[in-house]
Design brief:
There is one protein chain. With 230 residues, the protein is of the alpha+beta class. It is built from 7 helices and 6 strands. The chain has helices spanning 2-16, 18-40, 46-55, 61-74, 128-134, 154-168, 174-189, and strands at residues 79-80, 84-90, 93-105, 111-120, 138-141, 146-151. The chain is globular and about 60 Å long.
Length: 230
């Protein structure tokens, strides 16, 4: 019976032509890559997974797993809402924010964004466009003086922030940063960890990065600093 089944499968693939064989091979390669990447990730402790399942009912499984890993790394969150978990002063980050919402992102390959990690960082105004072209999930806030990356893994956030720093400091162009990012993720899926994935390669400042801007000339004679005049 096994011989008949194998012959039947071979005949079906032959009838479908080279495209079917290629599609099957591509699917197998993708599964192998996912398995390699999964094997590299340290699983969350059972205690943390129990917490996540209990406290995050209704959240996607991947988000629950990430929550458990963050608890293993930084302890239980400092704040929680129906949609967010928040850790303050988490390792090198000013804040780590895990969201229930999953945001579609197709760079460097299709995935979901839900883990945002924030550092104090002063981005010069003339670099905002470059960062936006580099990665739409790297978020610079001039007034607050912060820079964050949002992905599905802390390692990818390290990578995104390290390359953003390279762009701001003119060490890499936008194109070079995007190429580096894609190559590093591809290598990670093959079992090789680039240093940019392991930690921040620079020391983020601690405070004094906010830029409150200045009053518009037309408003300097206003009697109140409040936009509403109250």
């Amino acid at each position: 019976m096994k011989s008949i089944a194998i012959l039947g499968l071979s005949a079906a693939l032959f009838a479908a032509g080279p495209m079917a064989v290629t599609t099957q091979a591509n699917a197998q390669q993708m599964d192998e890559k996912k398995m390699s990447m999964k094997g590299m990730e340290k699983p969350a402790s059972e205690e943390s997974m129990t917490w996540a399942r209990d406290k995050l009912k209704g959240w996607p499984q991947k988000n629950q797993e990430t929550a458990a890993k963050m608890i293993d790394e930084y302890g239980e969150p400092d704040g929680q809402t129906d949609m967010l978990l928040i850790w303050n002063e988490s390792g090198p980050f000013k804040q780590t924010i895990l969201s229930k919402e999953q945001i579609d992102h197709r760079f460097p390959m299709p995935h979901k964004d839900y883990l945002e990690q924030v550092i104090d960082y002063k981005v010069p105004p003339d670099k905002f466009d470059e960062l936006a072209r580099y990665d739409g999930s790297v978020i610079a806030e001039r007034t607050k003086g912060t820079l964050s990356a949002r992905c599905d893994k802390e390692a990818a956030n390290f990578l995104a922030l390290n390359l953003a720093h390279d762009i701001v400091t003119d060490r890499k162009s936008v194109e070079q940063a995007r190429e580096y990012y894609a190559r590093a993720i591809k290598d990670m899926m093959a079992g090789k960890m680039d240093p940019y994935l392991e930690k921040l390669q620079f020391n983020p400042p601690s405070g004094r990065t906010a830029d409150a801007d200045s009053p518009a000339p037309a408003m300097r004679s206003a009697s109140s600093e409040s936009p509403t005049g109250k």
